[in-house]
Recover the amino acids of this structure.
């Protein structure tokens, strides 16, 4: 696996992957900021959003055990089942489970796994959550740049995509992890 390579090799791989897609991202950003058609600009932004998700994926292929400080992953007082339900995270989970997205990261599913997989599952939810926080942050910076340059329509479109493809997956991983910890008294 890639995460077992020496750090210098991992950094080279990460730099190479991000440089190649970074050139594409830069080109798409230039096109986005010069585009007057909202639909075409949204298409460019959609590709950019997935580049950010790819970067998060590549980072964790290489640095599998990178985590934010431990207290980030702890449950907050407001993160109750009602909170997640009110935000529609449970509905979002049903959509993911019944769509092709369920095939993207099989490690964050417990169905059909042994009880011994729970520890791996919890680690995978933290990894996935961290990756989506990273991607969300990168895309949100572009939202701010679009707002700063008065590209309000594109900013709203990217923000909606960022919430759907990054923020909701973060909330979903948190909800899943908290539910399993409560269910198994961990």
């Amino acid at each position: 696996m890639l995460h077992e390579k020496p750090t210098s090799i991992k950094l080279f791989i990460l730099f190479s992957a991000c440089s190649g897609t970074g050139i594409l991202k830069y080109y798409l950003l230039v096109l986005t900021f010069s585009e007057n058609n909202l639909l075409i600009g949204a298409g460019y932004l959609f590709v950019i959003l997935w580049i950010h998700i790819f970067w998060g994926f590549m980072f964790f292929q290489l640095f599998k055990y990178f985590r934010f400080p431990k207290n980030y992953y702890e449950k907050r007082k407001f993160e109750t089942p009602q909170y997640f339900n009110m935000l529609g995270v449970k509905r979002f989970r049903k959509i993911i489970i019944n769509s092709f997205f369920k095939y993207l990261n099989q490690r964050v599913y417990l169905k059909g796994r042994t009880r011994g997989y729970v520890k791996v599952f919890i680690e995978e939810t933290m990894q996935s959550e961290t990756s989506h926080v990273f991607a969300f942050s990168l895309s949100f910076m572009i939202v701010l740049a679009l707002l700063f340059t008065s590209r309000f329509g594109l900013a709203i479109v990217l923000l909606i995509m960022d919430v759907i493809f990054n923020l909701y997956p973060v909330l979903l991983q948190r909800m899943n992890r908290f539910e399993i910890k409560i269910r198994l008294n961990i």
